[in-house]
Amino acid sequence: MPRPQQDGLAARLAGWVRVALSTKFVRDAGTLSVSQFLMGALMFVQGVLVARWLGPEQFGVATLIMGYPALLFGVLDARSSAATVKFVSAFAAQQQPQSALAMCKVGYTVDLAIAALTFALVGATAWWAEAHLVHTPGTAGLMAAYALVFLPRGLANTSRSVLSVLGRFRDVAWAESLAKLLGVLAVLVLVASGWGVAGVIIGHMIGILAAGIFLVALAFPRIKQAWGANWWSASWRHLTGKGREIFRFLVFTELTELVGLFGKQGDLLILGYFTTPSEAGYYGLAKKLMGLVNLLVHPLQEVLAPRLARYWASAERGELLQTIRRYVVRISLPLAGLVCLGLPFVPMLIRLTVGAAYQPAVAATQLLLAAAAIWLAFSWFRPLAYALGAVRFLLMSMALVNGLCMIGFVIAAPRWGATGTAVVWFAVGGLLSHGLWWAYYRVSLRPKLRGAGPRLSPAAVRAPELLAEEIA
User: Fold this and answer.
1) In which domain, by residue range, is 226 found?
2) What is the domain count for the chain?
3) pLDDT in tens, 289-307
4) pLDDT by residue (tens digit) across 447-469?
5) Three-state secondary structure along the chain?
6) Most buried pick, 181, 327, 366, 444, via CB within 10 A?
């Protein structure tokens, strides 16, 4: 009878779950994931109600109004959060508190400068976006107003990174969940009260402002407690000898994210330029549903990145390699499989939530979710590349992939609308991009890690208690 064998398998699986839940990595990632899913649920409810209340055309207008400032901010953003995590983690591991404070100062200064420049550019060009992207008179003021909240958002980004380095994931979760709740309630109340598109924009602004205030209030005292002073009092001289490396990292990560942004934001704006607000609304809905997968990826990467940076700075490369292996086998691949299993249920989900008017969004949603599943499976690569300083490859691969994406969007959007644009994103942004990442890992990154540190036997690799030691 197979019953004893089944009982043994069930006991073993239960043991794995029990041990996994006892590890700090899983607890930290779980805290952020629960927070992200709660926020995702709120955003999903908000998206469904707002999409029903506004209809595809007005929903598309609201998406484009927020998309244009977001694109400009992304173009200018130096992505100092990645540098903050990498270098503050390294300075903390090497017991250099003054250098950690100076790196915090770099992050806050750069983010505030970028946010101010974004606001100025949006204010100067909103008239053009109103006429050529949104195709709706009277929306330029809303774009400029939305860009204003990028100032507190700039403070929030570095604050979040510092709290992650300090392991204050619960603080991050509470702050962002409360801010998101305030933002969602504001959107729903305003739209239900007849504010329409303006209500969507103002509600989102309230949520972003609240997140900035909460994260700053949490991060500033934690920084002083951890390293003995306020970040603004730190001297730049404590980064002497590291300035060139930090600048190089910032430049390459900025350029990498910049070229990536054209694929992430350019698809929607190209649709708005070549087609109608309704097509942008279909694709905007598909991207919002794809965002549910992002709720898995970002917490996992946020917990993984400081850990890998610390291992690399401390020359604990055996631990780094084993952590990556555990992460792939136990977390990223199983979660990617679950996303793929949900693809056949997309038509029913759209029909039951936003209604039959959004049925043209089904194919685009399935394609974007499939691409997101691939991204989830490879969610370990970018934190590893940042930890090892492989920013040049990230830039070159993203430039190639997103250049091809932009060409594909321009060809596909006028002919096949949202579905054609999603096909391009799946083929190039999903399959080609991560194929390049895997090849680079095999050829360049893995040789740097193999043979360094203790190697584990196959039996040890399968031992539940080792999981707790490796990802503790």
Assistant:
1) 17-470
2) 1
3) 888 787 778 778 878 888 8
4) 887 754 433 333 333 333 333 33
5) CCHHHHHHHHHHHHHHHHHHHCCHHHHHHHHHHHHHHHHHHHHHHHHHHHHHHHHHHHHHHHHHHHHHHHHHHHHHCCCHHHHHHHHHHHHHHCCCHHHHHHHHHHHHHHHHHHHHHHHHHHHHHHHHHHHHHHCCCCCHHHHHHHHHCHHHHHHHHHHHHHHHHCCCHHHHHHHHHHHHHHHHHHHHHHHHCCCHHHHHHHHHHHHHHHHHHHHHHHHHHHHHHHHCCCHHHCCHHHHCCCHHHHHHHHHHHHHHHHHHHHHHHHHHHHHHHHCCHHHHHHHHHHHHHHHHHHHHHHHHHHHHHHHHHHHHHCCCHHHHHHHHHHHHHHHHHHHHHHHHHCHHHHHHHHHHHCCHHHHHHHHHHHHHHHHHHHHHHCCCHHHHHHHHCCHHHHHHHHHHHHHHHHHHHHHHHHHHHHHHHHHHHHHHHHHHHHHHHHHHHHHHHHHHHCCCCCCCCHHHHCCHHHHHHHCC
6) 327
